[in-house]
Amino acid sequence: MELPNLDLLTHVPQRWLEVAEKYLKAIPQVRARLDKETGAVLSHFEKRLKPYRGTLPAFERLPAQGRPREEVLRELEGLERREETRWKEGHVSGAVYHGAEDHIAFVNEVYALHSQSNPLHAELWPSATKFEAEVVAMTANMLGATEANAGLPPEQHICGSLSSGGTESIMLAIKTYRDWARETRGITRPEMVLPSSAHPAFDKAAHYFGVKSVRVPVGADYRADVAATRRALTRNTILLVGSAPSFPHGVIDPIAELSELARKRGLGFHTDACLGGFVLPWAKRLGYPVPPFDFQLPGVTTMSADTHKFGYAAKGTSVVLYRGLALRSHQYFTATEWPGGIYFSPTFSGSRPGGLIAAAWATLVTMGEAGYLEASRHILETAKALKEGIAAIPELHVLGDPLFVIAFGSKTLDIYKVMERMGARGWDLNGLHKPPAVHLCVTLRHTQPGVAERFLEDLRAAVAHVQANPGEKGTMAPVYGMAGTVPFRGVLSDLLKKYMDLLYKV
To answer: Which residue positions does N6-(pyridoxal phosphate)lysine occur at (predicted)?
Structure first.
């Protein structure tokens, strides 16, 4: 996609750009040009996202007669074989965090045993609520609850719920703070202050729940700027946010300083440990430099930690934790006037898959402390070797000082072209912007023999190729470049919406 020189627009206030964009998009010639350019990009995406067209049956209507189960199973097995190679070989960033065949088989067996259970009907399946309560308790105690609870009455102990993933955990926390602030402080126009590196799930929560998201810049080390956070506080601020670690750069924000600022102001503080919750406690025990980030800090009032990431459970579970029952109660929903009877649910979902809750419980109790400690040891050792190997490539540099999520960029090369060349060699990496970079989230898949060495070998070759072919545009690199440079947010938003439309095309 050919783009004009937009450098002069980088310092124009965003509200002016939004007005200008609105009028530009209303001009037929501009609209036609945008449609043509985005159409070309989407056409490329469609080929990648819909590889089974014309090779497998497609269904826009229910078949008149149901297909034989054996036939359907054969088709599903074929799809699994086709799609599992790259993640099994460790050629993806994150995505699959354990992946060993015996572990997958065990988790699948547990899910099958409890596939019909649903904690909405606690009397029918009390096992589901047992599992959920114990997963929450185990996660809380791993994240400092034992120390935080000492000497306090039970109603002030760390508590929580299971959600469907990190995004729901974060959204539950923000909804909870909104309602808490409205009831206890009379705040009707709530704001939260968070670093620019915090996960977009916070903005999603702000969008849904009417909370203003105030983003502040990170420092030269890519960690949240405490002074900038302090300056951003207003009478409507209800909480502050920090990441442990942040998704883009893999560094841990200054949680101690941020949470203490929140505590002194009577605000909530959320530690987003979706990525690090099941790694950092063990990294600290192994002697790695892990600053305080959990409930041992008195200012931390909520946390999120994903059991389906480095907790190694099946996809679809995360834990959101609260300092005390009174705060968690604002998460709950109750309906007392419905003709269908009394209704209540702790999270956004009504019915929830008890099989996933059972799988999370079974994973935690079979891994145990020793299992998580050993898994973290392998991941951190592999990440150290990768970080050193990347830093040794003269054209590249590592951003910040990460532990296991390693972001790297370049001052001399188009890093997105390097990422694209890595894609041609079978690697699926995450593109970042502001600044342009690429990252690899190291998992147990990367600790397999030879994977780290293969990554560094391919990375050196990718860098050499981009150096030798400076005029090569590639196919995806311009899209990533556009995301980091185009000041008109609506253009990118429209493209992303069309991309999502594409996902739903048969």
So the answer is: 309
